[in-house]
Structure formats: C-alpha cells, structure tokens
Amino acid sequence: MAYTSLPIEKVRELLRMKFEENLPHRAIGRQLGIGHVSVCYLSKKFIASGQIWPTQLTNDELQLLFYREKIISKPVRALPDFDEVKLKLDNGISLRKIWKSYHLQYPEGYGRSRFHELYRLWLVNRLDLSTQLQVVSNPNTSTEFKHALKNQTVNSKNSDMTENIGEALRNAEGDWYSQVHEKTVITLAGHGARLTVERDELAINPGTSASTVKDKAKTLARGVHGIKAIVIVGYAGYITLDAIEWLAQQNVALYTIDLVGDLCLNLVPAISPHRPFQRRAQYTANSFLIARSIVIEKLNEASRVKPEVTLLYRRIQNDISRMNSLEMLRLAEGRAAQLYWNQWNFELAHYKDLPEHWRKYSNRTSPLTGSGRKAVHPVNAMLNYGYTILAGRLERALVYEGYDPAAGALHAYLDGRPSLAWDLIELLRPTVDEQLIGWIQTQKWRKRDFEVNDEGKVYLRQQLARVVIQKSWIPDVKIKKVIRWYAGQLVGRKEGKVEI
C-alpha cells in the first residue's frame, strides 16, 4: 500500500496524540487532516521499530525511520531478466515462484512486491529498466531527456494497448493465484472442474477456462490430507458417485458457488443423527427470547470488533431488554447495524483504472435492494461471498448435530431458506468482517479484479473469489461454539457471552 510522505512535524504530532493523549485513530486523522489508515500505519511502524514515546530521535532520524524506502537511489541490485520472466509466465509459472527463484539466486536483490512492481513497469513501458531508474534517481539529468522518456512511455502505451490490457489481466489473476494457500480448504475455479476417485485417492482437476492462470491437478489420500472442505466457483463441472462417497467417508464438505456469489450446492449427509428431542425443543421453544438473545450476542461481538460502538450500543441494548415484539427487535437490530457499518469507513489502495465510486467504502447497503444483497461495491461483494459460504457451513453443521436448519427465530420462515443458519451467522459476521476487511485494506485493487452485470451487481473474477473464500474462512471450532450456545438457549440455560 502506498502512502504519501507527511511533513515530519505532523508525524511527530501524530505520535504525541497517539501515545500521550491516547486518542483514537479517526480523531487524530480529523485533527491532522489525514486518513485514519495512515495514522494506524505510522503508529504500527513506530512500535515495530522498537522505539518508545517520548522519543529522543531528531526530525532527520524520524524521517529516515518512516520514509527511508522513499529515497530513490541508483539501482545497485541485480535486475531480473524480464523477457525471461514473461516467457515463464506464458508457460504457466506464477510470478511468486519466479520471484522465489530470483531471490535464491540474488538474496540481496529486490523484495517480492518491488519485483512485481518493476515487472509491471517493464510491461507497460518496454524500456531499458536500469536506464529508466538511473534517469529518475539522477538529479543532474536534463529536463529534455526526462520529457523524452515520458513521451516514449506514452507512445508505448498507445501503440500496444490491446496487449497491455491482456497483460494487466494476467497480472491481476496471477497475483490472486499466488495468494491461494490450500491448507484446510481447497478452492477450484473454471468450467469443467471435476472430482473423481483414482486408485482410492480423490483426484481434483481444476477447470480449463477459469482464467489465464493454469492450475494444477491434485490428489488426496485417505486420512492424511487434512482438508475440511472443497469449494468450486463456477457453473460447469462434474463429480462422480464414488467421489461423493469418498468425501462423505472422509467428512469433507463440498460447496459450489456461482459467479455472482450464490450457493448452488451444499453436500450434506444423507443420514443425519436422529435426535427428535432436539427438533421438538426447536419447535416448542420461545422463538422471541431466542431471537432477542441472538441480537444481544451480535451486538456484543460487534463491540468487540469495533469498540467505537460500545457506548452507542448501551441505549439500544437497554431498549432490547424491555422489548416483547419481534418487529421492534428487528428495527433495533437495523439501527445497531447502521451504527456498526458507519465505523467501517476507509479508502482502498488502488491502481488508476479503479472507478471513482469504488475507491472509498462507507456503506453496506446496496441501492438495488436496500440491504447488503446484490452488492454494487467490491467490498460488499466480497463480504457477500464470505457470508454465503459461512451460511452453508452452518447449515451443514446443524444437520450433522440433528437440528432443523429451517426452524429459525430471528429471520422469517421462507421456503428453501435455512433460517436458523442465517440466525446463527449473526454471531459470526463481525469475525468475518474483521478477518476479511482487514485483508482487503492491505491489498491494492484494480478494475479488472471484478465484473459488473447488466443490473449493476458486482461479482468477483474466479481467481479472486478463491482467495476471498479462504480469507473469510473461520475455524470449525467457532461454528461449534455457536451451535452449543444455541443448544443452551433451547433448554433455557442462561449462558454468558459467547466466546468466539
């Protein structure tokens, strides 16, 4: 993420307000006229450096501490052969693996992010990169030569626009593909993704046309794979009967999600535990009391993730404790949700092609629906993907525990909707928000990461969708804790705050 250098006097005042007055980041940002993300970044960098406040560092030393990477010098590090890098990318090798090979050969060379940046610069300009860096770093270079270099760059862009767009798409997909780490959940994308069994091992073949990135086939052996779930993003593919049996025997969940973020398949066991007393308790319990407990716990979790709303929630929580109407409870929840989402207000780090109305996030509501559904902003689209998969996981876990996932309390009964799963997801949403949005704020975004349909709904390109699913994935133990809490509510047990 790129940050503009601030005057060092302003940085020193920022540190004083942070460590002496203990002001929140947003309050500091308002007083100094900067974004709260910059306040957070500089504060963390000061702490990570091992310094304590008040500091004895001079202004020059502080400048070096915070902005030493801004100092441009002559390129003394070994530059990669970018023609060879491009050739390897065309052969399906990821940019991350190419950098690793370069780093092994040149341990003192460029870091991964700078390596990626230099490669993109080379793609756009197709100039001698070492000469260009020397021109930028040399203050004695004539102004005329710099202008000529700039004009050459512009002409290069204009003469090769079609190829640049294709390369930009390849880079975008390659970046996201490099972030796929399949430790407990495997994600697939593309038409023709398939699951079969070969020699008693599950054979996982990715789709053939998901993107310009070529994924590799995988195999899982029984008992040692450590995989909890497989998620397929896309519309076309197939799974054999013996693969379904293999997944059931190994207790591996299978979900398919379409390109607009809707859950299409949730593979649940054909024979779930028969626990009629649990179903009876669901159907005869006081649903309003359970709904009220769900809202209270949701507000507690929201306060944990966003402490700024704690004082704002006190009055709402007092009102909720005296309510006896489900309609009033839902209105109170709506007010609390609005206060909560008002705290998620930030700007996205972005490339120049990102549309203006996507560059700042400040609203969870979509104008198409008046709710979070049918997102028109990329952040909301990514949140919807995370929520959808989490609802599917909750539904599957409820079936395994012998509950009826349709017998909810807070959400209205609708045919085909697992209302109880969407009830319990309210206790886990803040955890997903914290996890996913925290990651979103560390990335740099481009227009080509997303697609927009005729209605205006935003959805994710398949490689990005794979990463979002993994970044929003929360441990199974948190889901089990929420279900245990719900079981206590059914029997009238007054449990304390859910430890999520």
Description:
This protein has helices at 8-19, 25-32, 36-48, 59-67, 82-90, 95-105, 112-125, 129-137, 143-159, 161-178, 241-249, 276-284, 287-305, 310-321, 326-342, 378-400, 419-424, 429-440, 462-471, 476-490; strands spanning 185-189, 193-198, 201-205, 218-220, 229-233, 237-239, 253-257, 263-266, 346-347, 349-350, 360-361, 444-445, 450-452, 458-460. With 500 residues, it is of the alpha/beta class. It folds into four domains: 8-67; 82-124, no CATH class; 172-267, CRISPR-associated endonuclease Cas1, N-terminal domain (Ribosomal Protein L15, Chain: K, domain 2), CATH 3.100.10; 276-491, Four Helix Bundle (Hemerythrin (Met), subunit A), CATH 1.20.120. The protein has a four-stranded mixed sheet with strand order 1-5-7-8, covered by helices on one side. A four-stranded mixed sheet has the order 4-3-2-6, covered by helices on one side. Strand 7 and strand 8 form a beta hairpin. Helix 1 (8-19) packs across helix 3. The longest helix has 23 residues, at 378-400. The protein is globular. Mean pLDDT is 81; it is low at 69-75, 127-142, 144-150 and 152-166. Its EC number is 3.1.-.-. Its cofactor is Mg(2+); Mn(2+).
Please give a quick description of this structure:
This protein is α/β, with parallel strands linked by helices and about 500 residues long. Helices cover about 50% and strands about 10% of the residues. The protein contains 20 helices and 14 strands.
